[in-house]
Amino acid sequence: MLRSCRQCSALVIISALILISAASVHAFRPPTPVSSLVSNQHRRTRSRSAISTASMTAQDIDGKSIAAAVRAELTEKLASLPDGSSKPGLAVMLVGERKDSQVCICVRALIALHLVYF
């Protein structure tokens, strides 16, 4: 089904429904013995704690400044395109009917339109 986003009429979103039943996905898995679940759980807990204390470090990043830098770089590159050349666009394929995904795509389309036309 072809549809255009209300807020970004220049973007056409292709939406397709894919239906997969959870029962058919789980039907292909062989049953797991309870004894192996208990021993695997013990191993996972022990190894997870060893990994988390030894090698994992988190680092905060400033997403807004990174986004601003990327937008500034893209604006410069788009401004350097010769007049009359084809302008870049954004094509999106949306699978399903999730509202949060539709909002995310509309926001990205608005950003793309803003970069190209302003």
Structure notes:
The protein has 118 residues and is mostly helical. It has a domain at 1-15 and 90-118. It is 53% helix and 10% strand. The chain has a three-stranded mixed sheet with strand order 1-2-3, covered by helices on one side. Residues 1-27 form the signal peptide. InterPro entries: Aminoacid_DH-like_N_sf (IPR046346). Keywords: Signal.
Unreliable runs: 1-30
The strands making up the biggest β-sheet line up spatially as: 1-2-3
Q: Give the strand content.
A: 5-15%
What value does the average pLDDT take? Answer: 66
Structural class: mainly alpha
Shape: flat
Determine the number of helices (DSSP H or I, runs of at least 4 residues): 4
Q: Please provide the ordered H/E string of secondary-structure elements.
A: EEHHHEH
Indicate the radius of gyration in whole angstroms: 23 Å
How many strands? Answer: 3
Distance, first to last CA:
30 Å
- Helix percent band: 40-55%
Largest sheet: 3 strands, mixed
Signal peptide: 1-27
Keywords: Signal
Organism: Thalassiosira oceanica
Protein name: Tetrahydrofolate dehydrogenase/cyclohydrolase catalytic domain-containing protein
